[in-house]
Amino acid sequence: MREKVHRHLGKVLTGAALAAAGTAALVAVTLPGTAGADESRGAGGGTRAGWQAGQGPDAVPPGVVERAPAEAERGTGRDPLTDDEIGRVEKAALAGRLSALGEDAAGERGPQRLSVDLAEPEAGETDDPDAPRRADVAFYDYSNDTLVTKTVDLRTGKVERTDTQRGVQPPPSRAESAEAARLLIASPLGAGLKADYKDATGKDLTSPDQLELSGGIYRAAPGAQPAVLDACGTHRCVRLFSKVRNGPWIDTRDLVIDLSARTTAALDRG
After folding, report:
1. Closest Cα to residue 206, out of 236, 186, 231, 176?
2. For the segment 26-37, what is each residue's pLDDT rounded down to a tens digit?
3. How far apart are CA 173 and CA 41, in angstroms?
4. Can you give the pLDDT at residue 40?
5. CB–CB of 235/259 below 8 Å?
6. Phi and psi for 2 in degrees, rounded to 5?
7. What are the Cα distances from residue 140, in Å, to 82, 112, 158, 172, 213?
8. pTM of the model
9. Distance (Å, rounded) from C-alpha 229 to C-alpha 237?
10. Where do the DSSP E strands lie in the chain?
11. Which residues are bridge partners to 235 per DSSP?
């Protein structure tokens, strides 16, 4: 694994070097008013120090950072959801059995929150400025491997409908990627990841907080994985893309973490 990691890192660093070169080319531009100026005076009068201080005849006044306007409690129409609306619809969606009996990626009570999005208008509401605003709140319940989506009326706080699906796997949340990394670090299959982290930083890898993580869903494909991963797709399985914070990438793409079974496995590459 470590040989593959270093080859992969070489490609990343080459890309970064090219990007840096492009950036350097962009910033090497002569500033207006400086070309042709002598050592002491700018073209329109005034000392060079005055020009540098922004006091020349065409000087632009310094920028002023203004405070962002306060966010309203409620949006209108197709406005993005406000923080207040997100908090209220999450609370409404979690009420009842789902909160009491559901389970998140870490095995704690309550389902795993995935997303909160403004719902699409229903038939006949598209051009109605007074149409209800609704939000779709998606959870994954690890107690029975189901995706639960609740649609909440933002004005009344009422849950209008609940959809439950099995075998549907949206992208993992940040919390799920962190839990997958925690399981991998604790697994024997995480030995290569920890060794590469130690090589890159000189420190031991003990927590997902030491990595920058993103994840993708893995689904079982005939003959492409060990039998232990055959349930992936019904189970929620994740492949991680791992990076040392402010450092290089570490290739963990061949490792799959089954969050439902809380197991890890390496893909069969033949």
Report:
1. 186
2. 333 333 343 444
3. 58
4. 42
5. yes
6. -70, -30
7. 23, 5, 20, 10, 20
8. 0.71
9. 8
10. 112-118, 134-141, 146-153, 159-165, 211-217, 237-244, 249-250, 255-258, 263-266
11. 232
